[in-house]
Write a structure and sequence with these properties.
alpha+beta, 5 helices
């Protein structure tokens, strides 16, 4: 079960019939054609909570994910990482990796949205199983576009480099009256 580090690419807070999404992107392949995006459909409340955590915005009263962080800390544990561990159809599964005060790792089942909202509040790594990526990830088309653009520039550069003066010899058209 290989894990890959993920970054939050974006959060879309939907309303009504528009679904909310968190979009994760593989962190170990920034700028390469191997970059993958993992869109996960989440609730709008969780999308808002993730956005607030990423932005570092605070509220007068702790939200659910702030409460969870406080409870974990009060018990002498800390969050080590969160993991997107499985996908079945359109349902994703996650775990929160806690380290107890005596150094034991405890994996707690979680919804991905809750795990990610906690991760942004505790500044820990978000990981995804390779099996999840192979099932549900999409190529990061910006990387594909960048590769295509680089290829076109190389072709143009090679064309220009191989031009010779003879390529510019254009026969003059005979003009009437001369």
């Amino acid at each position: 079960m290989a894990l890959r580090r993920m970054n939050i690419e974006g959060v879309i807070v939907g309303e009504g019939p528009i679904a909310s999404l968190v979009i994760l992107r593989t962190a170990d392949s920034l700028g390469s054609t191997e970059s993958l995006q993992l869109p996960i459909r989440i609730g709008s409340v969780e999308a808002t909570s993730i956005t607030m955590g990423v932005g570092g915005r605070s509220t007068n009263r702790p939200l659910t994910h702030d409460l969870l962080r406080s409870v974990i800390e009060a018990l002498g544990a800390k969050v080590d990482s969160v993991r997107i561990t499985a996908v079945e159809g359109t349902t994703f599964f996650a775990q929160i990796d806690l380290i107890t005060s005596d150094g034991q790792h405890v994996l707690v089942d979680s919804r991905p949205s809750d795990a990610i909202a906690l991760a942004v509040r505790t500044d820990v790594t978000i990981l995804a199983e390779d099996s999840v990526l192979s099932t549900a990830a999409l190529p990061d088309f910006r990387g594909v576009e960048e590769t295509e653009r680089r290829h076109e520039l190389e072709e143009f550069h090679n064309f220009v480099e191989n031009l010779s003066p003879e390529d510019f010899n254009v026969p003059h058209a005979e003009q009437d009256g001369e």
